[in-house]
Design brief:
With 452 residues, this protein is of the alpha+beta class. Helix content is 25%, strand content 29%. It has 11 helices and 26 strands.
Length: 452
């Protein structure tokens, strides 16, 4: 399969495989769309062709659930599920420079509007206590004011007015860029990209160092340069195959209330004063498609999980070379629980793997290490390994009062205890038969349907 390079190609592909369901019934953007999308989570991608908000109707299709299984992510990358992390890690280490094309060849330039109105877009309210309508699948492009190197990332963006957005900026690269600009009392130019293929979405979540252009990671994942085009009103390059581009700037010295917002841990992030984006222009395709990610669904969680897993795998391998794979489990909201499989050769390796994983990200709270015969993507098998291969007095340890994630409501403003669980078989018992799995000869070759 060749790599898809636009969200339209991706929709065509999953529609042929009966994974995309089109909904023509009139659907309310206030809660109803999110409720239907959540019901289909992990089962179908959805395209809503007829939506409304209050008394305004929209004919712009709204899509969601585009990447809500690991199988879909592997399909988008055109690799096996087992090779996803290895392939993503390779792309991070071997980027390809994107190329700039003329805007006459860029579909996202078919409509150019210098009087932007966010109320013309079908932006939903997702959860009951959300502070308003939120853009959740917008890739924000900005440049380091000092080096002019691009960075891309996804942020929650609340509609405050027809041309204003409130933004939550966590202490990462965009925070650094805005801090530089604001100290000089200058706006930070940005572009927000809506409606892109799965590869570009994944690349936007890469844990790359400062001044590392994630568009280069996307290019490597495509196996050819990503085509970018100059924005109309800001000095930024954007993907030419996108559906919608919002152009503007984060204003210095301006704060307005943003939130609450239903976040990935399945709790609300609080309302507080946040920076404000003022829009200057909207460019789009002549018949655009709007993408929304329903917060805390599998699409949201897995999109963040894959790049993090790839990063954790490389860091843990540096400490324990015989590490096999890493999973950030959905039960741990793809952030807080890391499950690691190793081909254990020496006692102590599980603890080394745990320390490496905990140090790889402040978000990780609990780490479980299992043997390579355990499917780390199967929660039942992982729990079985803990139940039958772990003794709490010697195989579990706790690190109190470490830096965690402030969105974890059980933390003390981000200060959190961490826990490691060694659920591997003691090497002394490896050949004793004590831990030999039961097996039925021929079971794997049997197809149940042949007996019906």
């Amino acid at each position: 399969m060749s790599k898809v390079k636009s969200v339209r190609q991706w929709l065509e592909l999953i529609k042929k495989e009966n994974y995309l369901i089109e909904i023509n019934k009139k659907v309310n953007l206030r809660y109803e769309l999110s409720a239907v999308g959540k019901k289909a989570d992990g089962k179908y991608a959805l395209q809503f062709n007829n939506t409304f908000f209050d008394d305004k109707e929209f004919k712009i299709p709204v899509i969601t659930n585009l990447l809500n299984t690991r199988q879909l992510i592997a399909k988008a990358l055109d690799v096996s599920i087992e090779d996803v992390l290895k392939y993503f890690s390779y792309a991070q280490l071997n980027p390809i420079e994107p190329r700039i094309i003329d805007k006459k060849n860029a579909p996202v330039k078919e409509i150019i509007n210098l009087n932007p109105n966010l109320y013309d877009l079908p932006i939903p309210i997702h959860h009951e206590k959300d502070g308003g309508r939120y853009i959740t699948a917008g890739i924000l492009v900005a440049k380091n004011p000092r080096t002019q190197v691009r960075n891309i990332s996804i942020h929650r963006l609340q509609v405050l007015d027809k041309n204003k957005l409130g933004i939550l900026i966590l202490p990462r690269h965009l925070f650094h860029f805005f801090d530089i600009a604001e100290k000089e009392n200058k706006p930070l130019e940005i572009a927000i990209v809506i409606g892109v293929d799965p590869i570009l979405l994944l690349a936007s979540q890469a844990l790359a160092p400062l001044d590392f252009d994630e568009f280069g990671i996307a290019s490597r994942l495509y196996d050819e340069p990503l085509e970018l085009v100059k924005a109309e009103t800001v000095d930024i390059e954007v993907p030419s195959q996108a559906e919608i581009i919002l152009e503007g700037a984060i204003l210095p010295g301006v704060r307005e209330f943003e939130g609450p917002f239903g976040e990935y841990p399945k709790y609300y992030g609080p309302r507080s004063l946040k920076p404000v984006i003022e829009l200057k222009a909207i460019t789009m395709r002549s018949n655009p498609i709007y993408h929304t990610i329903i917060p805390a669904t599998k699409e949201h969680l897995l999109l963040g999980a894959i790049p993090r897993e790839a990063n954790i795998l490389q860091l843990v391998k540096n400490s324990v070379p015989n590490t096999v794979s890493v999973c950030l489990s959905e039960g741990g909201v793809c952030r807080y629980h890391a499950i690691i499989s190793i081909d254990k050769k020496n006692e102590g390796e599980p603890k080394n793997a745990i320390f490496a994983a905990l140090s790889s990200s402040h978000e990780i709270k609990h780490v479980i290490v299992v043997d390579k015969d355990v499917d780390i993507f199967n929660a039942e098998e992982v729990e079985w390994a803990i139940a039958t291969r772990c003794q709490a007095s010697k195989d579990i340890f706790i690190v109190p009062n470490a830096l965690g994630n402030k969105l974890d409501p059980s933390s003390a403003n981000g200060i959190s205890d961490k826990m490691g669980i060694d659920a591997t078989i003691p090497l002394v018992d490896g050949n004793s038969g004590k831990y030999e799995k039961i097996k039925i000869p021929g079971e794997e070759e049997i197809s149940l349907e042949d007996y019906f």
